[in-house]
Structures are given as structure tokens and as C-alpha cells.
Write a structure and sequence with these properties.
Elements: H1 3-16, H2 23-33, H3 40-48, H4 50-60, H5 69-88, H6 90-97, H7 100-120, H8 134-144, H9 154-164, H10 169-197, H11 204-235, H12 238-256
Helix pairs in contact: 1-2, 1-11, 3-10, 4-10, 4-11, 5-8, 5-10, 7-12, 8-9, 9-10, 10-11
């Protein structure tokens, strides 16, 4: 992997991790178009740069992360379903991750759903994440489990889940960002531990690429989060729905034409 490729992948990660468009689908498309072949370091890189994206949430919402102990307990409750089903369905998830076709189909289905979300859940009256109950947090956590299907988008699943529980678009998006911190940190820590257990040792050049990737992902994710909230409040999900349908359609066309799309 070159420095240029690392930067492009980090930009893709920063842009798509918190938007309802599926970072997995974009990583597959981006890496395939750039001719990046999957190997141990590439897999490590795509996981490790999530840490940069996570830090953007903590920096942007720094004060909110120290508002109360109750806040952490609610995040824990919302996080538990992902831990349970992640362990239960680990093999099946890995199997789906190896299927670009599954990702393309999930992108298309999710896109169609986003076209109608604003009509289905337009009566949200909870505009402050502090008003979320433990029961609501658990239900949003269950929605998050849908994102275990590659191409679904963790952000899309949790925001739609929040809106289904009477949260406004803004409150649902913000809780989705907060929930991303333990979820992504846990997933990243597990992957890094697995690499360590396999005895993989990175080189000095690879360390440099990881640093660059995390810095870029951090900066891009901060911008994406700030502008996403404003856009979502004004325009809703419809544009994201059409975008997902286009990206999913492109992936399907490439697959049907025999293009070598590989999961990194």
C-alpha cells in the first residue's frame, strides 16, 4: 500500500463511517478500483484507522462525554446487544464479509428504506439525548445489530432505530455517534488483538501509514459529522437513499461484468 492509497482509504473511512451509506461498501469499491490487494497489513489498516474516526466524536462532543454516569450506563445498555449477537453470529458475519454481492444488495435495500424514513418517522419529539431511557437505548442497540450485515451501515441502522423511538433526526444522529465509540473501539480492539495473537509484526513504514491514516480519518470524520447534522436537519435521508442505490447498483454492475471486487 502506498501513502496515496492510505490517504484515500482514510478519507473514505472518515467520510462514510458516520454517514448512513456503509463504510464497508465504499472500502470494497475504493480498494478494488485502486488495485489494493488484501493482505495482513491492509486488513489491519482498515480496522486501525477507525480509531481516528472514533477520536473525532470524542473531541467534537467532549463535554457531553462527561455529563453524567447515567450517560455511560445507557451507552453500555445499547452496546450489549452488539456484543451478544456479535459473538453468537461471528462465523456468519465473517462469511457475509467475504461476499461483495451481499454488500451490494444491502446497500440497495438500505437505500430504498432511506427514501421513506422521513415519512415513516416524522413525529419525533425527543431532541436531547439525555432524555433517552434505558429501554430506548436497548432498542437502538438492537437496531445496531442489523449493521452486522455488511453494507447495511451502522449509522443508518442506529439513526433509523432512534427515530423509530421518537427521537428527532438530530438526537438520533448524535446518539448514533456516541454509541459508535464503544462499538467501534471494541471491534477494533478485538481485531488488533487477533492480529497480535497471530504473531503479525508491522514494519516502520507500515507504522507511518497507520499514523497518516488515523490523522486523515480523524480530520475528515470531524468535518463529516459537523456537516451531516446540519444537512440531516434540513434535508433528511432521501439524498442518502438515492446515493446508496447508485453505489449498490455500481457494485452489482461491476460484479455481473466479472470485475474482481474483493473484500479487504
Amino acid at each position: 500500500m502506498t501513502v496515496f492509497q492510505a490517504i484515500i482509504l482514510a478519507i473514505i473511512e472518515g467520510l462514510t463511517e458516520f454517514l448512513p451509506v456503509s463504510s464497508t461498501g465504499h472500502m470494497i469499491l475504493g480498494s478494488s478500483l485502486m488495485g489494493i490487494q488484501s493482505n495482513n497489513f491492509v486488513k489491519l489498516f482498515t480496522v486501525a484507522i477507525q480509531l481516528g474516526a472514533i477520536m473525532s466524536v470524542i473531541v467534537l462532543y467532549f463535554k457531553r462525554f462527561f455529563q453524567s454516569i447515567d450517560f455511560y450506563f445507557k451507552l453500555l445498555v445499547a452496546f450489549i446487544p452488539a456484543v451478544f449477537f456479535g459473538m453468537l453470529l461471528s462465523d456468519k458475519i465473517d462469511e457475509l464479509l467475504e461476499s461483495p454481492l451481499s454488500v451490494a444488495i444491502a446497500l440497495l435495500i438500505g437505500g430504498i428504506i432511506l427514501l421513506f424514513v422521513d415519512k415513516w418517522f416524522n413525529d419525533g419529539n425527543i431532541d436531547d439525548t439525555r432524555e433517552i431511557t434505558y429501554g430506548t437505548a436497548l432498542k437502538i442497540g438492537l437496531f445496531q445489530c442489523l449493521s452486522m450485515i455488511p453494507g447495511t451501515s451502522r449509522s443508518a441502522a442506529t439513526i433509523v432505530g432512534g427515530m423509530a423511538q421518537k427521537l428527532t433526526r438530530k438526537a438520533a444522529a448524535e446518539f448514533s455517534f456516541f454509541l459508535a465509540v464503544p462499538t467501534m473501539f471494541g471491534a477494533t480492539a478485538k481485531k488488533l488483538y487477533d492480529f497480535y495473537q497471530d504473531g503479525y509484526v508491522i514494519t516502520a513504514n507500515e507504522v507511518t501509514l497507520l499514523i497518516i491514516g488515523n490523522v486523515v480519518a480523524f480530520i475528515v470524520a470531524m468535518l463529516a459529522i459537523k456537516y451531516f447534522i446540519t444537512f440531516l436537519q434540513k434535508h433528511g435521508f432521501r439524498l442518502f437513499g438515492w446515493y446508496r442505490i447508485i453505489v449498490g447498483g455500481i457494485l452489482l454492475v461491476l460484479l455481473l461484468s466479472g470485475y474482481d471486487l474483493h473484500v479487504i
